[in-house]
């Protein structure tokens, strides 16, 4: 049985937790501060979400979503490295600059690759990078269209599991290739944010791959 950990109680942590709980999954919502995760879990108000410490969330889950800010040499990730050994870890981060119009990483690098280097013994997958937080609450666009979640990773089995999991939510999950593809996907978030601001989409915007 898949159990999910979400590390971080911010906008994305809340959205991901409530989406998986709505789909019937047991979610352990982790925080650096136990009181925070308990409060946030009770605010969300779904019985399948339990607020715990980051360490307990990782321990009780089979798949871990890191809903925390990108930082080089991230202390939160480093602190969980041992507990994350062998687990599927989903990085959702975008290394945005303070004005959201560029990335802080070099062009031939990505946040996903950085997380993978920090966690060499985990099975790192990238997902949800282009999904703005508000979309978790209103996932359907014009005429009931779901937006696309591009999923990347070098561990094909781990990536397939994450695609299957996200397909249980109101999203179209697509295999977008190896972890290096995160370089492009993270740049796409800059574009989507720019479009949202230029055209007043109020951060309710995403991408949909059609064929
Ligand atoms: N917001 C979006 O629309 C969006 C879209 C796609 C991807 N993302 C990515 O998703 C990640 C989370 O974004 P968010 O909007 O949820 O951010 P947020 O609202 O600022 O929340 C981030 C959470 O991460 C935890 N955290 C752990 N280590 C931290 C640290 N060193 N400094 C600050 N917080 C830390 C905190 O939870 P605790 O205090 O409970 O530990 C905090 O509430 C980011 O990497 C972002 O690039 C965001």
Description of the structure:
By secondary structure, the chain is α/β, with parallel strands linked by helices. The protein is 34% helix and 20% strand. The protein is built from seven helices and ten strands. The strands form two sheets. An eight-stranded mixed β-sheet has the order 3-2-1-4-5-6-9-10. Strand 5, helix 5 (111-118) and strand 6 (123-126) form a beta-alpha-beta unit. The protein is globular, with a radius of gyration of 16 Å. The protein starts with a strand and ends in a 13-residue tail after the last helix. The mean pLDDT is 97. Bound molecules: NADP nicotinamide-adenine-dinucleotide phosphate. Residues 8-13, 31-33, 36-37, 67-70, 76, 92-94, 128-129, 131-133 line the site of NADP nicotinamide-adenine-dinucleotide phosphate (NAP).
Task: For the structure shown, list the relevant keywords.
single chain, 211 residues, alpha/beta, binds NADP nicotinamide-adenine-dinucleotide phosphate
Layout of SSEs?
Layout (H helix, E strand, L loop, with lengths): L2 E5 L3 H12 L3 E6 L2 H11 L4 E5 H7 L2 E4 L8 H6 L7 E4 L19 H8 L4 E4 L13 E2 L3 E2 L1 E6 L2 H11 L5 E4 L6 H17 L13
Parallel strand pairs: 1-2, 1-4, 2-3, 4-5, 5-6, 9-10
Antiparallel strand pairs: 6-9, 7-8
The site of NADP nicotinamide-adenine-dinucleotide phosphate (NAP) has 24 residues, from helix 1 and helix 2.
